[in-house]
Every structure is written in structure tokens, then in C-alpha cells.
Amino acid sequence: MKTLVVGAGPAGLSAALAMAQRGLDAKVVELKADRATVGSELCLMSANLRTLDALEVADACVAAGIPITAPGRFMKANGELLAEITPPKLTRADLPASVGIQRRALHDVLYDACRAHGVEIEHGTSIVDIQRAGGSVQAVFADGRVEDFDLIVGADGVNSAVRRIAFPDASQPEFVGQIVWRVRVPYEGPPRLDLFAAPHAGAGFITVSKDTAYLFCLLKGDEARRLKEEDFVVEARAAFAQFGGTIGESLDSITDPSQINYSALRPNLVTPTWYRDGVLLIGDAAHAVTPHLAHGAGLAIEDGLVLGEELHRHGNVEAASSAFMKRRFDRCAFAVETTVKLSRLQQDSPFPTPEQSQITHAGLQRLAEPI
């Protein structure tokens, strides 16, 4: 069985790794010309580490990131403590409950593991068409090449080209009303996971390495608003200015526009299926969530693991894809629907409500269930 994975993000690399570990032939193509990564930094919770452990890379992720052993803190905007959060432990005893990690570090762990298992990863490559040819599916590349595969996996993100080609009638990402500021700052204090609540907004502080922290802020916003990079520092500081605690202490460290990202939240759920005629969507191409449950990358990695398991178990694409959908659709649909609900509640509420807390708790409990 020969599989083409389009996209070298968490979903695509995890899928290729899971296949290679089971003796299946997987090739990855990536539009970017190098190993550069795009996206937010991460807090890998225990459920995520459980999946990474099944891919045999959890220890490498712990080494590449920084364990967060202190309880998480939920605070008012001014830094006043509301509650401490002790995440459940779902992994083997010697793994931490959570790990802060830079996206590039996670990418390197998955990328290097793929290469160690013989996965071919081709950069600067895109597909422009997909065609059926007898019992195989053909990928037409931008340089004119045509190659036959048993399965093409679209793991190319929220603006997936594979989805556009193979699922032209699928739903598209839709602005949910919030924007997010993401900033990396120097930090050498104790590892922290702090969450802050403000009127119609939320923010967080996560230690992601020995010398770096990641700040994020969710606000009501205008999708059409465009900012110049030269304005990022002033605008980001203004967004974070209402918060105290570890965020307030970091305001003066927001100085480098290259360490700042500003984007609109555009979730999406492809229904009723992510499989059609030899093409399967996974990760954000199939189910893009908002950050409210901190599980976007985790769900993508789960997709990759489950796909590898089912292809190995069934030995043919149709049966494996059907089994994959049975294991993944309800879980991922729940995550999309729950995060959208939390985003809208956050926008509408002057302060966190019991309903928000209940929905968040129930969401994290559901995502802690075995996959």
C-alpha cells in the first residue's frame, strides 16, 4: 500500500510516522521550501503525551520542551488567583502531566522520527489535481509529474488545497468573531501555565522552553482588519495591557515583531465524511478548532496515529478509512462544536460564567477519553 501525505505539519508527520512504524509506504510532500513552521506554541497535556507515547516520541518531546509540574492557575485579569488546576495524569508514571513546547521543537521531533523510519519528505512541492485511474488515485504535481497512490491524505491545514480539489462542496472555514494575538517572549522563571479571564476576552501564559514563554490573547475582532508588521508591538502590548500576573510582568518584553502573530479564528468541520474516492482529510483540513480547549495539534496527531493503526489493521483503503471515520468523526466534531460554543460565550460574557466552566470541564474530560 502506497500513501501520499500532503502537508508536513503535526497531522501529516504523525500519519507518515505511524505508517512507517508499521511497515507501510508513506511519502510526504510539503509546499514550504524548508522545515519552517507556522502556528502557535503549545502546551502538550497528558492526553497529547499519551498519543505521542504511542508514536514512540513522548520522551523526545519532554526533552525538547519543558515539563510543567506546578498546578495551572486560573486568574482574574489583574492576576488575582481564582483556582488552581491539576490536570489528570493519563500516561505512564515517568511522564509529566503537561509539557510546554515550541512548535518548531515538536515539528523537529516528528520530522526527525519520520526520517529515522525512512519516510521520504519532499519540500517545495504541491499538487494541483487528483484523478482516479483504475484502482489507484493519481496526484498531479505542480511541476507536471503524475504519480499513482493507493491513498492521498490531505493534511495541509485549514486552507487545504486537497480539500478544495477533492471536496469542492465541503464547508469552508468561517470567522467566529474572535482574533488571537500570539507572542513569544524571553522568560527564565519557573515553568507556568496561567490562564486569565477578562470581560469578553481571555489570555494565557505558557512556559515553552528554558528561556521562552508564549502569551496568547483572545479578543473580539474584525476579520477584515489588516495590520502592518511594524505596528505589531504597539498593538500587541495594547491587547495584553489589561492583564496582570505573569502576562503583565512580560509586557516590556514584547519588543520583536517577528515573534508576534495576529490572526482571526476560523473553525471548520467537514461533514458528513472526510473520505472520498481514495482521498482522506485529516487534521485542520477536516476539523479546525478554536484554541479554547488547547487540543488542535493534539487532535491532528491523534488522526495520524489512528490512520496508521487502521491502515495496518485492515490492509485496504476503503475498510481502513471507514474504521478511521468511526473512531474520529464524533470526537473531532465534539471538539469543534465545543470550542465554537466557548468562543461565542466568551465574546458575549462580561466575565466567565458557570456555563463556560462546565462546558470547558466536560470538554477536557471527553478529550481525555481513550482514542
Largest sheet: 7 strands, mixed
**CATH fold assignment of one domain:** FAD/NAD(P)-binding domain
CATH top level label of one domain: Alpha Beta
Topology, number of strands: 21
Features of the shown structure:
371 residues; 35% helix; 6-stranded mixed sheet; FAD-bd; alpha+beta; 10 helices; single chain
Question: What order do the helices and strands come in, and which of them pair?
Answer:
Elements: E1 2-6, H1 10-21, E2 25-30, E3 42-45, H2 46-54, H3 58-64, E4 66-67, E5 72-76, E6 81-85, E7 98-101, H4 103-116, E8 120-123, E9 127-133, E10 136-141, E11 146-149, E12 151-154, H5 161-166, E13 178-186, E14 193-198, E15 201-209, E16 212-220, H6 232-240, H7 245-250, E17 260-264, E18 268-269, E19 275-276, E20 279-281, E21 287-288, H8 296-314, H9 317-348, H10 354-367
Parallel strand pairs: 1-2, 1-12, 2-8, 5-14, 12-20
Antiparallel strand pairs: 3-7, 4-7, 5-6, 9-10, 10-11, 13-16, 13-17, 14-15, 15-16, 18-21, 19-20
Helix pairs in contact: 1-4, 1-8, 2-8, 8-9, 9-10
Describe this structure in words.
The protein is of the alpha+beta class. The protein has a domain at 2-42 and 103-173 and 267-347 and 357-367: FAD/NAD(P)-binding domain (3-Layer(bba) Sandwich), CATH 3.50.50. It has helices at 10-21, 46-54, 58-64, 103-116, 161-166, 232-240, 245-250, 296-314, 317-348, 354-367; strands at 2-6, 25-30, 42-45, 66-67, 72-76, 81-85, 98-101, 120-123, 127-133, 136-141, 146-149, 151-154, 178-186, 193-198, 201-209, 212-220, 260-264, 268-269, 275-276, 279-281, 287-288. The chain has a seven-stranded mixed sheet. It starts with a strand and ends with a helix. Pfam families: FAD_binding_3. Residues 2-322 form the FAD-binding domain. One of its GO terms (molecular function) is FAD binding.
